[in-house]
Design a protein that fits this description.
8-stranded parallel barrel; 10 helices; 8 strands
Length: 234
């Protein structure tokens, strides 16, 4: 089971040092924990039991691209995972599936595992387009990759209408959409994200519906993360 903690654009330098000290105190039995901090904090983090991820990567390789961070640079800081296609990047920064595809190729070239975020809007859900949206986002993101390369990708299903709203899809809904993904990509790990809480984690874990969770704002509250881990590992 994987828990990926996306800190988003949070934590000052001092706050991160305290967070880093506290996260190492989490009790883990078999759960794989991936910390995905703000890019500024990547070089400050080190842990033998927690993997490091990045929230973003350039679609370019190293070169004259002011403000960008390349996959090769991330690898030099021992980054093993990287988010791509998060809905905030798609919405606020107009990232396209084609750009996401280039990012994934760069990550795979450096042996960094892409965590590909996909999800439907409320309007798409109401128009019964969820399946089409999810499979289209994956298909275009993995274009021109070999079967072996595609299988290295972790897929994170995050219904956009649920993220940060407190509106939680039922376990049956989540299972239906993850089964849809697994039917086409049976060898890929699939995470769930979007209003993750103790109740849906218990059901999704017990029923073996998901391979883990992508957690956003809640990642800042390590006491609650420990409770989630305890639920998963009981």
């Amino acid at each position: 089971m994987i828990i990926a903690l996306n800190n988003k654009c949070h934590l000052t330098k001092e706050e991160f040092f305290l967070y880093q000290s506290n996260i190492k105190n989490l009790h883990l039995k078999g759960t794989k924990l991936v910390l995905i901090p703000s890019a500024l904090h990547i070089s400050s983090f080190s842990s033998s039991k927690i993997s490091l991820g990045s929230q973003n990567v350039s679609s370019h390789e190293m070169g004259p691209y002011t403000g960008e961070i390349s996959a090769k640079q991330l690898k030099s800081y021992h980054v093993d995972y990287c988010l791509v296609g998060h809905y905030e990047r798609r919405l606020m920064f107009s990232e396209t599936n084609r750009e996401i595809n280039r990012k994934i190729k760069n990550l795979i070239k450096e042996d960094i595992v892409p965590i590909l975020c996909i999800g439907e809007t409320k309007e798409e859900k109401e128009n019964h387009l969820t399946r089409d949206v999810l499979l289209k986002e994956i298909k275009e993101a993995v274009a021109e990759l070999s079967k072996e390369e595609v299988e290295k990708i972790i897929i994170a299903y995050e219904p956009i209408w649920s993220i940060g709203t407190g509106v939680i899809p039922s376990g049956e809904e989540i299972k239906r959409h993850i089964d849809c993904i697994k039917n086409v990509y049976p060898n890929n790990k699939v995470l769930y994200g979007g209003s993750v809480n103790l109740d849906n984690v218990e059901k999704l874990t017990l029923d073996n519906i998901v391979d883990g969770y992508l957690i956003g704002g809640l990642s800042l509250h390590l006491d609650k993360i420990q409770l989630l881990i305890d639920k998963i590992e009981k």
